[in-house]
Structure formats: structure tokens, C-alpha cells
UniProtKB/TrEMBL annotation:
Belongs to the CopC family. The keyword Metal-binding applies. It is found in: Periplasm. It comes from Rhizobium lusitanum. GO terms for cellular component: periplasmic space; plasma membrane. NCBIfam families: copper_CopC. Its main location: periplasm. One of its GO terms (biological process) is copper ion transport. PANTHER family: INNER MEMBRANE PROTEIN YEBZ. Keywords: Copper, Metal-binding, Periplasm, Signal. It holds the Pfam family CopC. This is CopC domain-containing protein. The keyword Signal applies. InterPro entries: CopC-like, CopC/D, CopC_dom, Cu-Rt/internalin_Ig-like, Ig_E-set.
Length: 122
């Protein structure tokens, strides 16, 4: 009986360790402009902060404007211990709703992606 309890304990410990590893993905924690926000001034950059460090070579964004055209952006850089992706906005943004589609590769090799929107008022 003692041996069975020991095996169950080992199995439980292993599953907890694996579950913790499975959750090690770079999830978007916050953004500037914030998701679903309305801003009065067009941003000159987008700052996306993730739950862990990113691999810059395989992380980025695509921004589309109110007319569904792609907004020109500059080269992204990493800040804050490689957890914040800073993307300069090259185009002058007019009023309307913008969608940011992002993809990220965490430093431990996990891929994630998602999207959010923000609106610029006149």
C-alpha cells in the first residue's frame, strides 16, 4: 500500500510540473493604446507587454486601419527584459478603428497570437 501512495505522489508531481510547463506561453498582458480603448491622439508607437520574454525575430504585429488597409510600421524592438514589443507607427493615423494582429514566440519556444482593437477619435 505504501508503494502505491508513493507512485501516486510521483505521478501527481510529474503532472503538476508538466502542467506548469504547458502554461509557459507569452500571453499579451497589456498594450498601449489599450485594447478596446478610444484615444484622441494617434499613437506614434505600439507597446505590447507580454507575460514573458520574446524572440524578436519571430514576433511582430500587423495593423489594419478603418479602410482595411495595412498601416506601415517600423522595425520592432524589445524592451523591459524582452517582454515588451515596441513597434513604431510610420503612417499618420486618421480617426477610426484600428486592429492590431500580433504573433509572438516566447524565449522558451512557444508560439502565441491574437488581436485587439483601438479607436482614434477626431
Amino acid at each position: 500500500m505504501h508503494r502505491m501512495k508513493k507512485l501516486l505522489l510521483i505521478a501527481a508531481t510529474a503532472s503538476i510540473a508538466l502542467a506548469g510547463h504547458a502554461f509557459a506561453h507569452a500571453h499579451l498582458k497589456s498594450s498601449v493604446p489599450a485594447a478596446d480603448s478610444t484615444v484622441k491622439q494617434a499613437p506614434s508607437e505600439l507597446d505590447l507587454t507580454f507575460s514573458e520574454g520574446l524572440n524578436l525575430k519571430f514576433s511582430g504585429v500587423t495593423v489594419t486601419g478603418p479602410d482595411k488597409t495595412v498601416v506601415k510600421t517600423g522595425a520592432a524592438t524589445l524592451m523591459d527584459g524582452d517582454a515588451t514589443l515596441m513597434v513604431p507607427v510610420s503612417d499618420k493615423l486618421s480617426s477610426g478603428k484600428y486592429t492590431v494582429q500580433w504573433h509572438a514566440l516566447s524565449t522558451d519556444g512557444h508560439k502565441t497570437n491574437g488581436s485587439y482593437s483601438f479607436t482614434i477619435t477626431p
